[in-house]
Amino acid sequence: MTRFERDSAVTRAGDGVYDARIDRGWWIVVGANGGYLAAIVLRALCDAVGDAERAPRSLTIHYLSPAAEGPARVLVRVERSGRSATSLSARLEQDGRVVVLALANFARSRESLEFQDLHMPEVAPPETLAGYASLHGRTVPMRERMDTRPAFGAPGSSAHARTIAGGYMRLAEPFVPDPPALAMFCDAWPPTIAQRAEFGPGGTVRGVPTIDLTVDFRAPIPASARPDDFYLCVFRTHTARDGFLEEDGEIWTRGGLLLAQSRQLAMLI
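Now predict its structure.
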């Protein structure tokens, strides 16, 4: 079992009740990474569904308050379960305080029309790219849990016509990603706004805490996936206004299969 699996694990404590523990190893600048919290909640949701044929299709997380290191509890409710789909809600709590609210849909695969007009960007292979730590020096604890290879984006540069960032990512410990890991990947890259000169010391933006995160799971991990495989992560921001911005994400296999798409709303502070 990898550290990610241990630190995102849940234990059933009753009907729809799961115990978890928030680990400081997944901290970013001021608290726990939102994608890590999403992974914990999704583990509880998967157990509550209890049907391997009903894969997670959509997960929406609202972040209400910062998580603290230590014990947590996930409360899951099955809102509806039909012949092919299950809809659930969940809340992650600490000391009676709600940290996260979530909605999720799980469903069986369906025979239907298939196409993919979205294409993976062409970038250099990860073996030729430098790791995040060697490019940026001191990192936050979560970066030590990840092997991150930036492929495009220039943090702190002058304003770009497009705010885009990304590159290859995998967990530092060999592990074939499961849906909770993909949910975490969708919030594991430094914010795209960091590409702009307005971000950071001396800029007008110091941080971008996430308000909500939605992850749509588009394809299962291929059976041929290996524990040391990299995944290409692409993130874009198109609009910042009224103190908020959106960030759209894509998670790809190296072979060009789209595994997940995400959108989050974040606050500019």
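The chain has one domain: 3-108+125-267.
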